[in-house]
Write a structure and sequence with these properties.
The protein is of the alpha+beta class. About 45% of the residues lie in helices and about 15% in strands. The structure holds adenosine-5'-[phenylalaninyl-phosphate].
């Protein structure tokens, strides 16, 4: 049996030296180490040996088994490395230092508009907050006064993850966290809460020239003592005149959102058709741009702020629609298309 063991060792060594394919290597593994393999056969043959001999040969067979398993594992690694090397060698070589004949890139129109709005609000003392795109039901709905089964949820069907979280359908999902983040400074130091929070939103809805399933909003909030609708109107007017740098027709009409009371829809006259009516404004001449209102007492309370002492306003600016109007993009879907032909028209001075 000792000779058999030595012979198997030699055979395996020779076969491993010749193999250069992972499938073939696996066949060798099964041939030697499989349930019906040559080494297992050796173990079966030991039953006819004397006790002392069985002990000694058993140790040798186990040693062989271990050695075979190690050499096969090493060979697998060797073949994998060879495969990677081959793939790398077959890849085309790029010289990153060579000059390119591609045009200089430009920022996306939504980035440009977002940065512009951020700098306008920063100059008025607002902080800019970042917030997750994946949120909980509590953040997106319950904390802003939209309990489970509330009909307002129908307007914002979104994408749910298997763990119960969801892709945020509105930047209002951050309101509660912002109130909690700055609530102490408001109550202890009298520092008003003034924050904007831009972000990507998702809704499961049919797309058209002014609706996308993935779009950007920029939420804003101000909370202090004696904040009124006049403050809200002042900030909205300032923002629009700074962004468009010209007078634009705006209309404010009542609007329902469970997290504001009273609530408004702020529409602007469509700048694509001059208010005549076109697919970009659903032929109404007006585009819903920035719903807003006075923060509902329940939302303040849920954020740890006493609504009898403090009031505030909130708005939810449609950033993607603002980019459409500012840059004359007729179809909102062009903005997510990734088409360089469509996007390269927007250049930036920076
Ligand atoms: C909201 O999302 C509220 N959270 C806004 C708000 C915040 C109201 C704070 C009051 C106080 P609405 O669903 O209307 O509201 O969306 C707000 C804006 O986002 C719209 O006016 C529009 O400009 C933009 N918007 C909404 N849905 C889409 C869409 N599918 N595609 C592109 N823009 C959209």
């Amino acid at each position: 049996m000792r000779e058999q063991i030595e012979q198997l060792k030699l055979n395996l060594k020779e076969e491993l030296a010749l193999v250069n394919d992972l499938q073939e290597l696996d066949n060798i593994r099964v041939k030697y180490l499989g349930k019906k393999g040559l080494i297992t056969d050796l173990l079966k043959g030991m039953k006819d040996l004397s006790n002392d001999e069985r002990k000694a040969v058993g140790a040798l067979v186990n040693e062989l088994k271990q050695e075979a398993s190690n050499s096969i594992t090493d060979k697998i690694e060797e073949l994998k490395q060879a495969q990677i090397k081959k793939e790398i060698e077959s890849m085309p070589v790029f010289d990153v230092s060579l000059p390119t004949n591609l045009d200089r890139g430009s920022y996306h129109p939504i980035t440009l508009v977002q940065r512009e709005c951020e700098s306008i609000f920063k100059s008025m003392g607002f902080t800019v907050e970042d917030y997750s795109e994946v949120v909980t039901d509590y953040e997106c709905f319950e904390s802003v006064n939209i309990p489970k089964n509330h009909p307002a949820r129908d307007m914002q069907d979104t994408y749910y993850l298997e763990n119960g979280q969801l892709l945020k359908s509105q930047t209002s999902a951050a309101q509660n966290a912002i109130l909690k983040k700055y609530g102490d400074a408001l109550k202890k130091e009298g520092k008003p809460i003034k924050a904007i929070f831009p972000g990507r939103c998702f809704r499961n809805e049919a797309t058209d020239a002014c609706h996308e399933n993935t779009f950007f909003q920029m939420e804003g909030m101000m909370v202090d003592k004696d904040i009124s609708i006049s403050n809200l109107i002042y900030f909205m007017k300032t923002m629009l005149s700074e962004v468009f740098k010209k007078d634009i027709k705006v209309r404010l009409r009542p609007g329902f959102f469970p997290f504001v009371e009273p609530g408004f829809e702020l529409d602007i006259s469509c700048l694509i058709c001059g208010g005549e009516g076109c697919p970009s404004c659903k032929h109404s001449g007006w585009l819903e741009l920035c719903p807003c209102g006075m923060i509902h007492p329940e939302v303040l309370r849920e954020g740890g702020i006493d609504p009898d002492e403090y009031t505030g306003f909130a708005f939810g600016l449609g950033l993607t629609r603002l980019a459409m109007m500012k840059y004359g993009v007729k179809d909102i879907r062009d903005l997510n298309s990734g088409s360089l032909k469509a996007l390269s028209q927007f250049t930036d001075d920076e």
